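I have been asked to look over a protein record a colleague put together. This is what I was given:
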Amino acid sequence: MQYRKVIAHLRSTGLPVREIVSPSGGRVAVTTPGGCLAGMCVEGVEENILYVNKEIATPGWLPGKASSQIGGLRLWFAPEYAYFWQGKPDARTLSNHKVQRNCDPGSYAITRADGNGVRMEMTATLRDFRDGKRVQLHVERVISSAEPPVKLERLRFVGVRLQHRLELLRAPAGNPSAASSGRMRYWTKSPGARASFSKCRILPRG
C-alpha cells in the first residue's frame, strides 16, 4: 500500500498521525494504536516499506477489533508465550493466540511531537497467561529520525531510532521479586525488517 494512502486511511478514522521527516528526505508516519510506526518511505518512492493490514482501507474499520491490528512496527511485550498465548502455543492454527487489547491498540497518548520525533506514553495492565497474574506498567516510546550509518552514494535512505523506557508500577500479587526476575521484556519486530530485541531492568515505582 502506498505511504500516502496509509496516512489517509488512518486519518479518515480519526486516529492521530504524526509525520517525521528524515534528513535524507524520507518520511515516517506514527500513530497511537500499538504505539505503531505505520509507514516509512524513501524520498521519491510512494510504496510503504512496512507491512500494513489492508483492512484499514475498509469503510468503518476501527483498531482494536479481532484481526484489525494496523501492522507496521508495533511495541510488543515478551516473553510472547506469557502475554499472547493462552496455553501451549499452537503455531499451526493460532487458535489460542490472543492479542490483549491493553497492548494493541492499548491507550497510547502522544506527549510530544515535532518534525524530528514523536514520544508516546501508556499505562496498562497485562495478564500473564501462565499463571493469571496481572502486571501494571508504564511505557514510554520515542520514535525519531536517524542518519545513515555510513555515507551513501546514489542510494536513498530512511532511518528511525527507537527508544523505550519501561517502568513496573505494580508487581504481580505474591511475587514482589518479579521486578528483578525478568517477568517482562519488550521487543519490536516488523515483517521484512531486521528484528530488534531489547532486554531491560524493570524497577517498581517507589
Notes: Residues 176-184, 186-206 have pLDDT under 50 and may be disordered. Residues 73 and 190 are 5 Å apart (CA to CA). Helices lie at 3-12, 80-83, 178-181.
